Amino acid sequence: MIAALRPGDWLILSAGAILVGWLATFAWQQAPATRVRIYSAGKLYAEVDLAARRHLDVPGPLGITRVEIDRGRARVAADPGPRQYCVQTGWLIRAGESAICLPNRTTVALVGQDAHYDALGY
Amino acid sequence: MPSDTEHPLPGCAPATTFVSAADRRIAGYAAIAIALSVMEAAIPTPIPGVKPGLANIVVLLVLWRHGWQEAAWVGLLRIFGAALALGGLFSPGFALSLAGGLCSLAVLALVQHLPRRWFGPVGLSILAAFAHISGQLLLARLWLIPHEGLWRLAPLFAGAALLFGLVNGLIVARMLLEKPR
């Protein structure tokens, strides 16, 4: 009788497991964000180091959008827009995340070492 | 069809058309494989594309018992037959199924020559499952979802391939143990 799992099968099985593990670390590692880009009316308004701790008041057609940067994360703290989508987006942590205040034409986006996709749809 | 035409169907076929024993065997195995595919389509999965691939049990069994050529016939008939039965012939899903099937058959064509003393159906099943998912992912990346974000799903699909390849291979090993021919 030959065993169900022969030596070569064990080899293939462990190679497969290593491949899955490698794929997971390769595909699921998230590059940490290092900088914040703030766009106003389609133009780059400021690019700031994410490690800092400061406020930026970005002027737009409706008024001032206040961007808060807090040691590795950033958010829109206040915005004059009617629906407050960008404020409710909350803290941005990972590279590629963004908050968009469309009425006031202001965008906050985190960038990492290399350019990433900014959205995934299924 | 395979060329061993020693058993023509008696009394009904003209002299030029033969239905060999291999043909009947292939038809029977393909029918089982199609039935498994249709059954499997009823199982809900959290992620589209993650399926046990039970029909591959049949393909692997045929490969072990009757060689690669017959396994390829069963595998391809299964893909077309299941698509006809489920109503997705020439749909994107069918294209993915065909890409996966062709890739896994190509890999099986190579690895069938590995010494059977060392490499059993479980190893071949895992390799075929990985080939299957690679073919599908490549086609999806090149044609259906041309976006790098697709690779984020690759570990999930590879993990499923490993798991289901192992389980299907163990089932084949068990079946061969009970009935080698």
TrEMBL record, chain A:
UniProt superkingdom: Bacteria
Family annotation (InterPro entries): NusG_2_sf
Pfam families: NusG_II (PF07009)
Name the UniProt record assigns to this protein: NusG domain II-containing protein
Organism: Chitiniphilus eburneus
Origin organism lineage: Bacteria, Pseudomonadati, Pseudomonadota, Betaproteobacteria, Neisseriales
Automatic annotation (TrEMBL), chain B:
Matches recorded under Pfam families: Hpre_diP_synt_I
Keywords: Membrane, Transmembrane, Transmembrane helix
Transmembrane segments: 50-67, 79-110, 122-144, 156-177
Domain of life according to the entry: Bacteria
Keyword S-adenosyl-L-methionine found: no
Protein's name according to its UniProt entry: Gx transporter family protein
Organism: Chitiniphilus eburneus
